[in-house]
Design brief:
Elements: E1 2-6, E2 15-19, E3 29-37, H1 41-47, H2 52-55, E4 66-74, E5 86-90, E6 100-104, E7 109-110, H3 117-123, H4 126-137, E8 144-148, H5 153-164, E9 168-173, H6 176-184, E10 189-192, E11 204-209, H7 213-218, E12 223-231, H8 244-250, E13 253-255, H9 264-279, E14 287-291, H10 296-305, E15 311-314
Parallel strand pairs: 8-9, 8-11, 9-10, 11-12, 12-13, 14-15
Antiparallel strand pairs: 1-2, 3-4, 3-6, 4-5, 5-7
Helix pairs in contact: 4-5, 4-9
């Protein structure tokens, strides 16, 4: 089978298309013929060699932690009738950038009727992340919500759920294309955080901050006293740093990346709920491009450059 393999740590060019033996399911596993594989920012960081001891990844390896497709084979202890089912799943050893991928049978989520495989793949990481953050924040009707970067994978879903909850939503992003996309998702207002004074006049009861670094830290200037703030992303290279004394003085509840560290059971539950929400038409992921495996390096380069609005999927 064809795969997109990271041959060594480095830039996007280290991803090469290779031929590997077809996977064989072990006990409790299935093989999925991949219709679409998700790509996410952290995969570019791992490929670049960021904190390799933490991730436990040694090249050569095949990235990809989530796929959607059809079950083609089952291992021992797995119900054979699963063969032919349209499913989505989180893999447990990567391997999603491939024509076929292994996944634990207990991780399988049947695709809801009418939901396309590429939509499911686009929600596999961002859906549970956004739903976990949104549930914890307990957004109420009439509250003001600030979301940045509002055109990101999880953040774009937060825009939709916050709006549906009756909040007044301000989406912050960089550049006209992204701001237009956020407005199309239902945001009441948009601001460009690359512009001076972008925080002027903003007061938020809830802030979803997924950018990290100094930009993420600056967003707390818009937080009302008693606000709930979720700081969950670090694409800038580090999480935001805040003054505990200032948070306590202002009564701000700050939560972090721990809010999106789920048990396998909770991950499956939240992912299934996100897929159901999409099938019902209540949310939609932003999908910018669908690329073949041979262009996986291009997908990583686009993610790192923030040059597309929405998700880039690999479609074997």
């Amino acid at each position: 089978m064809r795969v997109a393999q990271v041959t060594r740590f480095g830039g996007p060019e280290v991803i090469e298309t290779r031929e590997l033996p077809d996977p064989v399911p072990g006990p409790g596993e299935v093989v999925i013929r991949v219709a679409a594989a998700d790509t996410i920012f952290v995969e570019t960081q791992i490929r670049a060699g960021w904190n390799p001891d933490w991730w436990g990844v040694v090249p050569p390896y095949v990235p990809g932690g989530a796929v959607a497709g059809v079950v083609t084979a089952t291992g021992t202890g797995v119900e054979p009738s699963l063969t032919g089912r349209a499913v989505a799943a989180h893999t447990h050893r990567g391997g999603g950038y491939a024509e076929q991928a292994l996944a634990p049978a207990q991780a399988l989520i049947p695709l809801p009727p009418g939901l396309e495989a590429d939509t499911a793949a686009a929600l596999m990481h961002d859906g549970p992340t956004a739903l976990g953050l949104f549930t914890d924040a307990a957004v109420r009707p009439g509250e003001s919500v600030l979301i940045l970067p509002a055109a990101g994978g999880a953040s774009s879903l937060l825009v939709q759920w916050a709006k549906a909850a009756g909040a007044r939503v301000t989406g912050a992003a960089r550049g006209r294309r992204k701001l237009d996309a956020v407005r199309d998702l239902g945001a009441d207002a948009v601001v460009d955080y690359s512009e001076p004074g972008w925080l002027d006049g903003l007061h938020a009861d809830v802030i979803f901050e997924g950018v990290g670094g100094e930009l993420g830290a600056s967003a707390l200037r818009a937080a009302a006293d008693g606000a709930r703030v979720a700081a969950y992303g670090a694409p800038s290279g580090g999480f935001s740093v805040h003054d505990p004394a200032d948070l306590e003085r202002r009564g701000i509840r700050l939560t972090g990346i721990e809010q999106v560290q789920f048990t396998p059971e909770k991950l499956r539950e939240l992912t299934a709920r996100a897929l159901d929400e999409a099938a019902a038409g209540r949310i939609r992921p932003l999908i910018a491009r669908r690329l073949p495996l041979e262009r996986a390096a291009e997908a990583h380069a686009a993610i790192e450059a923030r040059s597309v609005v929405g998700k880039t999927l690999l479609v074997p």
